[in-house]
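Give me structure tokens for this 753-residue protein.
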Amino acid sequence: MIDRVKTASLLATAAMIICPASAASAQEVAGESSAASSGGLEEIVVTARKREESMQDVPASISALSAGELDRRFDSDVRDFADSSPNIVIDDTQQGPGGVAAVYIRGIGVADVEKSVDPAVGVVFDDVYIGQSSGSLLKAIDIDRVEVLRGPQGTLFGRNATGGVINLARSRPTYDLTGKARLTYGRFDTWKIEGVASTGLSDNVAVKVSGAYEKSDGYIYNSFQDQPGQRSKFYALAAALLFEPTDNLDIQLSYDHQKTKQDPPQLLAVNRPTDLFCVAYAQCSPSPGVPTSGDRYVSVSDGRLERNATFKLDMAIAKATYDLGSDMQVDYILGWLKTDEEINQDFDAGPQTLYHTDRPARWRQTTNELRLTKGGSGPLTFVLGAYLWDSRYTINLKNYIGFAGPPLLTSAQDVTQTNKSWAIYGEADYEIFDKLTLTVGARYTKDKKSSIVNDLPVLIYGTTVEANPIATVPGSIVMADPVKESWKKFTPRVSLRYELTDEAMVYALWSRGYRGGGFNGRPATLGAATIPYDPETLDNYEAGFKTEFAGGRVRLNGAAFLMKYKDMQQDLDVPAPGTSTGRENRTINASSAEFKGVELDLTARLFDGFTLSGNMGYLDAKYKDFFGDIYSTGTPVDASFLKIRRAPKWTWSLGGIYEAAIGNNASAWIAGDVHYIGGHEITFLNNPNLRNSGQYLVDASINARFNQTTVSLFGKNLANEKGWTIGYDVQGVWSYAAPRPRRTWGVAVTQAF
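Here you go.
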């Protein structure tokens, strides 16, 4: 342990010496703007409040990455944005093909693959909310801007944004021929090619196309089958059209298609001496927190490795903007998204057929949003809107339960859930007097959900081959009609902003977040299938400041917050005696919880060509009152002693970038960052086998640009920190987990035009 800490500290120090970089942006490189050329930092424009404005003017906690900054990073998907903001943890839980995002802001989020569980952090892509964890990792192709909004965003972004929002935006098509292409080769035989190009077709029509292809052997080896255990292929194609028929009307259309084909994600068994799988089948971990294989990156799973897990995503977006004049405009956004996935996964993570699942799933969502915005210099600015949501989710779950030999038992369950929701919202800024601005907003939301669950007969074959069952047991859940429930909520927001100077302001904020109730998507009993869990609400009390000084060379923002939870939703994976699987996945409500903390964001141009940046977050998250049936015994107990998952006390990042000219039309830069995630629980019941200690994630790159060609050498997780991204403890039976990606490196060539 001491050696590990020393290694991480040395690497962190080294990274800082070479000017580490996570938050340093190209916008802060000399010559990119008038501000930058004069030695100051470039203004960051965000759309966190559904309209363009300077980040420094927004009375809320926001971190942002610009197009220039993103161009200098080597982000593969949403996970790589975590170092840009304090108090955020983003993992790929590896519970399905295409990635299943666990996005937590200020200790609030969801890590479950089940789509009946609404996300607690909203991922918004080109103004369209992504309503599921599967597929919300979103590959970083043609991303033009990233905004991380911390704290509940119940007014403008609505339900299921209790923790915050990650807002992603792509570039508009251009009338001039522009574009770039990048070829990357990295460790684990990873190849990636991606590109984007845009051009005008006429005076008022422009198009943009983008695409990507990636293949990899992955960072896990399957020793039982003696082959790479995480092979994957991914491709994406997208097209966008910009049509401006008049000076006042702007129409944008886009279509995206993505497909992933991979081996089922490799889960690793972490069994205690007392677990059934250890006692009965000798699947015993050599020590606490160490997988059965003895190495976090070696799998012994007997699941099929034939790239038979697939994930497909199709998305269409239409946006029309009409300029009414007088700083007013009307926007209409239509979004449509569908995903289809197939996977047969080994959840016992061992060389016997003990517990496997086959779970083809389909998701469909349609959104409509209409809003009226008034911008300008005031004294009154506002946004008014209406929102419609419609989604449908189906899964055909099949469980295979063996005993390292016959008999093989199979059970199947069909689930269909729908959600129809509508909302109206508004938010306005009013300049009470010079330098003092009041913001008032509110949203009214109504949700209506339905669910129908039917168990198919349980078949006992007496062999590991599914043929001629020797016994049949009726399913325990039979529903002729779906159950329905509806909820409604009013979520207000009030803030005051006072401008101390032209470069400094302070603000105070109260906001409320709301996440709708629902029905369990993997019920073990009829009661669990038909009785809904309640919505959750969160009140956020926040005070902060935003400043620029030293001639615009230093930007320092900070905030302190207190968030009070009511009916906090928690997803459980617990024993369920008498059921076919012996386990139950369900959502319950904790009575109350409290989150408080402090956040700081810093960007400083210390001298021309060198920018230092960093952030720090402190979080104290605790249940205040939690009395519930957490062990599925039928008897509620006091559960307030549990630690809240994915809520590290400390997170911080420190990075920088140094760039210098090396000749005519040539430059070079060195970049790197250290991102620290404090120790935290990843299981609801705080399994000590599946607890993450503090981790130092070190990234660095060396780059040279000649005219419009850039050659880069980069590394990620250079300290080779080990940790779990997900873990489940089926008490008394077995535990399993997925590991964090290993150290990797690569070379990239980027050609711009």
